[in-house]
Amino acid sequence: MNDILIKNGTVVDGTGAPAYKADVRVKNGTIAEVGQDLTASGERVFDAAGCYVTPGFIESHTHYDGTMWWQPDLDPLPGYGATTMILGNCGFSPAPLHRYMPAQREMIGIFSFFEDIPEGPFMQNLPWDWNKWSEYRASVERNVRVPLNYAAYVGHIAIRLAAMGVEAWDREATPEEIAKMAELLDDALAAGALGMSDNLHDHDGQDRPVPTMKANDAEFSALFDVMEKYPNSCYQVIVDTFMRMTGPANLERLGKLLAGRKIKCQIAGAVPTLEFQKGILPAMQESVRKMRENGVDVWPGFAHVSPTSTLSLVKSLIFAQSNDYVWHEVVLADDHAEKARLLADPEWRARARESWDNNAWDHSPLKNPQELFLLDSENGTGPLNITLKEYADSKGLHRSDAMADWILANGTRSTVHMAPFPKDEELTLGLMRDPRTVGNISDAGAHLQMLCGGGENALLLTQYVRDEKKMTLEEAVHVMTGKLAGHFNLNDRGVIAPGKRGDIAVFNLDEVQRREMEKANDVPDGRGGTTWRFTRKPMPTRITLVNGVPTFENGAYTGATPGEFLSPSNDDGSLAVAAE
Question: pTM to 2 decimals?
Fold first, then answer.
């Protein structure tokens, strides 16, 4: 039964309005009543004295598309009050699929590489019983049970590979292939996809730009024509402000392509907040200003947490994304004996030194050994809790040789940790308060040996609200709830009000912490064994409700799986359909 009366709490309703004392009644998974001194009428009563009662938090940028098939508890999200997650970001989605295996394997390989997820579980745990996105959605609804609601974009990379096969990497599309892409996008939007996600950022482990970088303006225009038929859909794209710094050119192109179109556009990285990105910041801000001036409904996407890199030799794209393909060879090596052999090989070491000196980006961890910490040893040999620079200097070694030596001594499953990139906090706060931005971006579900995106939302409650008082609790909750629900047109949730879905987080602010990362050895490796991922202990909430059902209570995940596949909705919560 999902009827519950939450008594004696302080409601922060998700709109940004001031908090107020009230009880909240949930019946049949929907908020039925909000008011003071409500009387129980047979439902369960939960005492929220000393606690805040807020809408459940929305994880606005995750990559659980594959992970949820083999880790259906979505640890650690329920303990952090998360009730909805957004999938299919960055152009990566499991559907649509080409009918022939080589092109299907390309999509799986792309997703696995860029999101640092082992390829084996993708092959073994997903049924791959679809070609169209609509068929994929039906398969997920048949086969997957999770504790969060979820909504998903369809990825432009997947659309391109489904229409063109492996040639999508190499050339522009023909008119016939563009027409096929438009047909596949229309299928997805008609079946309830949030919109289309895109990628103008990434290069793979062979330094190839992703297939969407080969798309010409005619291809974009045809896809945008389809999107305009679905006024509640959204275009999401990641641009490059991290590696090759093509972000300004990306925005200039998008500004022209989207001008005059009634398409909501979320651009991850549109306003970069890290100190090393300052050189392109003015151009990016000016492009956003011009786009809005020209009527483009652009929403910059941002993270409130500075990116950090954990350098792992098991599964990591950080070397390749730092423009170092020599250390990436060690990541790709099949077994740990071969990894160790490479690290000890003089010829490989010479190439590695040259790559770190001449190829790696200046802002990458490889060029900043004073920011790399030797913390995590497989066998405890050490030394620990010193920087790579300190270790290299003590040995009189090049930083690449020093890291190779340390890993050989400590075991090839050891990891090296980077300090967070310095970030402009005032700019970040400005983005939070901008009514047209998308925050709480975390990459949860991906890069699991680099970071733990799940639980980063707690920093908004702790660092920004309670500890440093940079913003109010009402502002922080709005950033994670009502604002995001409005952006994604998930209009039946995100606010504590009668008629909205019973997705609710109840927490005592004094108890909330963003817990430190720790390893869990529970990821299938595709070879009959497991490998590790980073996770963290719960925040915790006192209780997390999804569609009125407790998914976290008494300090632990309840085992309930009430999550549903969501679609964009109209203002009244009804399903959005194509415009006539």
Answer: 0.93
